[in-house]
Design a protein that fits this description.
Length: about 450
């Protein structure tokens, strides 16, 4: 009887275990997000992709800069005839050519603008990747906290069922119970063991996902609270915030700008072009009539495209269609963001309400279990009734653990859907990546083989 009360007491306390103080080295959900921000390969790959896009501005500017080339050639000629005999003639020439584009129908200017807009669009895509990884880290953390609770709950359930089996066997030994009671207790104990094995396996899976996203082993995970920083006061505010600042919308808008400049580039190909070309050369050898000579020239070229088989007009129409496509994609992103915000907000409200309901359910189930055990001890209930009541307690405990996890995940999902899950908004203790530093370092770079970081 004393052991039965102890088991019931442990079951009743199980939902509070996660709230106990943890060791000083315990990881927090903010620490997990900070590590993911620094270590996650998807984020680092996205940043590398942005640095690739940054170089597009320098490449676009190159057509407006001088183009310099040099050339050296040598010739050896052997002539053999009966009158003169065999003679060798040799000559060499060297030269340098400098070409400067003066006017190209504003193609260079618009190519630079399109490349710059692409950089801004890619920055927003990187921000979207960062938010997704921060959310994934928070979700992985909450999943481990939930699975740890489920393992703890099922261990306590197993201990309770072992005590019930021992009590049923003791009553059978003194002639107060039946073999059926013992068999029922044994069956429930076996089922509880299978449940515990499943919970442990799920915990290991969640830990593996955590390592993949965060880049470190989970240590001292404890039940986190739902996000509080940056949450909106209402659904309307959440939707307005998402439509205003979500990076996927901003990226699509910058893509519209880039496509618009692409139309101007295509139109510029139908305009006249002017360029200057300067050459300087020297020829030497015995195969020249005038001996060694040096020459130089400056040439101005005006090219007027008249007709190139219609390809230029096809490119103009093509870029206009691409511009129309990008504008449609902006509308698609707005609709997607709004749907995600509304869904996340509804899930957060539902999870918070479920926590309250599950706590009431658990309290009632614990009281019912205690009553059924007392009644069983005086012969008014059977072991089956106790096992059914214990199953109700187990279901309530697990439902509470799941709803606590859902509330955490939904709150961070809402922040991500709003475009507000950032290092700054969550006050993460990690250095924020500044993409503009690389852009400023390379956008006007004329020479150099090494990257900004020295590679």
């Amino acid at each position: 009887m004393l052991m039965s009360r102890k088991a019931i007491f442990l079951v009743a306390l199980s939902p509070l275990v996660w709230a106990l103080p943890q060791m000083a080295s315990a990881e927090t959900i903010f620490g997990a997000m900070s590590k993911a921000y620094e270590n996650n390969p998807d984020i680092n790959a996205a940043r590398a992709g942005l640095r690739v896009t940054d170089e597009g501005v320098t490449i676009a500017k190159a057509t407006g800069r001088p183009q310099i080339s040099g050339e050296v050639s040598g010739t050896l000629q052997r002539v053999d005839n009966g009158l003169v005999g065999r003679r060798d003639f040799h000559s060499s020439s060297s030269g340098i050519t400098i070409t400067q584009q003066i006017f190209d129908g504003f193609q260079t200017v618009n190519n630079v603008r399109a490349a710059t807009a692409s950089v801004f669009s890619e920055r927003e895509n990187v921000r979207a990747t960062e938010m997704q990884i921060l959310f994934s880290a928070a979700q992985a953390y909450a999943n481990i906290a939930r699975d740890q609770q489920l393992v703890s709950i099922r261990k306590q359930n197993l201990a309770f069922l072992r005590e019930q089996l021992n009590a049923s066997q003791a009553r059978l030994d003194v002639g107060e119970g039946t073999r059926t009671d013992v068999s029922q207790a044994q069956a429930e104990l076996a089922a509880a063991q299978a449940l515990l094995v499943g919970a442990v396996a799920q915990l290991k899976t969640s830990e593996a996902v955590y390592v993949q996203i965060v880049g470190a082993q989970p240590v001292g995970i404890k039940q986190p609270a739902p996000a509080s920083r940056g949450l909106p006061r209402s659904l309307d505010q959440a939707v307005a915030s998402g439509l205003r600042q979500h990076p996927s919308i901003l990226a699509a808008q910058y893509a519209v700008d880039s496509a618009g400049f692409g139309v101007k580039v295509a139109e510029g190909a139908a305009l006249p072009g002017v360029r200057l070309e300067g050459t300087f050369g020297r020829t030497t050898g015995n195969n020249t009539s005038n001996g060694d000579n040096t020459s130089g020239a400056i040439t101005a070229r005006l090219s007027v495209p008249i007709y190139q088989g219609g390809a230029e007009y096809g490119r103009i129409r093509q870029t206009k269609e691409q511009l129309g496509q990008q504008r449609i994609l902006v509308d698609r992103e707005r609709a997607s963001v709004q749907q995600n915000v509304v869904s996340a907000y509804a899930q957060m409200e539902a999870a918070i309400a479920q926590i309250s309901a599950n706590r009431q359910q658990l309290s009632a189930a614990n009281l019912a279990l205690a009553g059924v055990v007392e009644e069983r001890n005086v012969g008014q209930r059977t072991t089956l009734d106790v096992l059914i009541s214990q199953q109700n307690v187990l279901n309530a405990q697990e439902s509470l653990a799941v709803s606590q996890r859902d509330a955490v995940v939904a709150s961070y999902s809402l922040l991500a859907a709003m475009g507000n899950l950032t290092v700054g908004s969550q006050n993460l203790q990690v250095a924020e990546y500044r993409s503009e530093k690389h852009f400023e370092a390379v956008k006007d770079k004329w020479f150099g083989l090494r990257t900004v970081d020295g590679r």
